[in-house]
């Protein structure tokens, strides 16, 4: 059964497939704040997360658009995750028992104050028995103006101990190490602004490395943009020691993030002791922007699937 409150008044939409399998979406940012399978929560949301309708919600799956990272025109990671979305189509049960809902966001006075372009986004979520599907469409209705944007699903996985997790599919990929870059900025801004900007000009296009590990583990502050990654990653030792398959389409980048001890203390809406119980594996288009011509659309998708041992070879089917 699918459930919502009154569509016009509620801030939360619930997809309910039965058997204690649900997905909860907060209309503030269209943020997926819960995904429970057989009553087991799969997503991490900080105990200090803000639900005041102003700040982004720390955790779950948030929608990053049109900017990834710091932005001189507005909030970090853009406005989509701090804007109230419209419930385009309330939760509906499909013929196979799955439940879907569609959300949308259009340009308005608030978005145009930061980014003066017309746009329309549709965001379709489908809850299956052991899967959660995300289908995104970005449309440029202008007849004259093109625009560029970043897009990312900022996904926080709940894990028993991040030090025991491994991520496949990154071997041989190039990556941008944002931790190294942030440390460089902090150090040189303290030493000498002039020296810093000279060094910045020389290194900003060259701080790219190649991943040599067969599987990636996280044992320290990690903030990396892996480029040209394959369509599938498997994350081990998530909830109940299981594996999570992440299958993505038209998302060429994968961001891996965990703030670890010291960085966690700097984040006001994140508990000092919470970093061992989360791991961000984020599908995105961020190392280079999407260019959207007038009258055209961009589509991307992600499927998160819990792998049940004995069913590992099962192929994930994209639900059109």
From TrEMBL:
A single GO BP: galactose metabolic process
Transmembrane segments: none
Pfam families named among the record's database cross-references: Aldose_epim (PF01263)
GO CC annotation terms, alphabetical: cytoplasm
Pathway where it operates: Carbohydrate metabolism; galactose metabolism
Residues that hold substrate according to the record: 58, 76, 81
The reaction(s) this protein catalyses: alpha-D-glucose 6-phosphate = beta-D-glucose 6-phosphate; alpha-D-galactose = beta-D-galactose
Range of residues in the leader sequence: none
MF-aspect GO terms: aldose 1-epimerase activity; carbohydrate binding; glucose-6-phosphate 1-epimerase activity
Positions of the catalytic residues: 154, 282
Task of the protein: Mutarotase that catalyzes the interconversion of beta-D-galactose and alpha-D-galactose during galactose metabolism. Beta-D-galactose is metabolized in the liver into glucose 1-phosphate, the primary metabolic fuel, by the action of four enzymes that constitute the Leloir pathway: GALM, GALK1 (galactokinase), GALT (galactose-1-phosphate uridylyltransferase) and GALE (UDP-galactose-4'-epimerase). Involved in the maintenance of the equilibrium between the beta- and alpha-anomers of galactose, therefore ensuring a sufficient supply of the alpha-anomer for GALK1.
Protein name: glucose-6-phosphate 1-epimerase
Record organism: Glossina pallidipes
Record lineage: Eukaryota, Metazoa, Ecdysozoa, Arthropoda, Hexapoda
